[in-house]
TrEMBL record:
The keyword Transferase does not apply. It comes from Paenibacillus amylolyticus. Keywords: Electron transport, Flavoprotein, FMN, Transport. It comes from the Bacteria. Residues 4-143 form the Flavodoxin-like domain. Pfam families: Flavodoxin_1 (PF00258). Low-potential electron donor to a number of redox enzymes. SUPFAM superfamilies: Flavoproteins. Belongs to the flavodoxin family. Its cofactor is FMN. One of its GO terms (molecular function) is oxidoreductase activity, acting on NAD(P)H. This is Flavodoxin.
């Protein structure tokens, strides 16, 4: 059985909640996954998984949050060829770059050779009730459908 990882950076708990809902979706589809904060492990650990999903909130107008920077920079040392990945996160639509950190992270993973799902999940703040199933479905589709990659 494939090994999956859902890792996230969260300050207010919004992106953590999205990550937990994604894990619920993966688990409901019969797959096992590890859930970790990016502050608790080295980016090289993603190599131990068949696929991984990275969650990051956006700080300010499209910037990466401080506690995510070490993880982001560690990615430069990795060869992610053959690894499936997807990116999700939370942000604020009042900024010009809504969830810009999600886009930056997806580009970094592509640069390192990962097969990144073209679908990115972007949620404003914390998921509303109707968005919670969207989060679960995002995880289900990633692990079961052999997500289209670009």
């Amino acid at each position: 059985m494939a090994k999956w990882l859902v890792a996230y950076a969260s300050m207010t708990g919004n992106t953590e909640e999205i990550a937990e809902l994604i894990v619920e979706g993966i688990t409901a589809s019969g797959h096992e996954t590890d859930l970790k904060s990016v502050t608790d492990f080295n980016a090289a650990e993603v190599l131990n998984y068949d696929g991984f999903m990275i969650g990051v909130y956006t700080w300010g107008d499209g910037e990466l949050p401080d506690e995510f920077l070490d993880f982001y920079e560690e990615l430069d040392e990795l060869d992610l060829n053959g690894k499936r990945a997807a990116v999700f996160g939370s942000g604020d639509t009042s900024y010009e770059q809504f969830c810009g950190a999600v886009d930056l992270t997806a580009e970094k993973l592509k640069e390192r050779g990962a097969e990144v799902s073209p679908e990115k999940l972007k949620i404003e703040y914390s998921p509303l009730e109707q968005e919670k199933e969207t989060c679960r479905d995002f995880g289900r589709r990633f692990v079961t459908a052999g997500a289209e990659v670009s």
